[in-house]
Amino acid sequence: MYAVVRTGGKQYRVAPGDWLEVEKLAGEVGQQITLDDVLLVHNGEQVVIGQPIVQGAKVTATVKAQHKGKKVIVFKYRPKQRYRVKKGHRQNLTRLQIDAIEM
Question: What is the pTM of this model?
Answer without folding.
Answer: 0.84
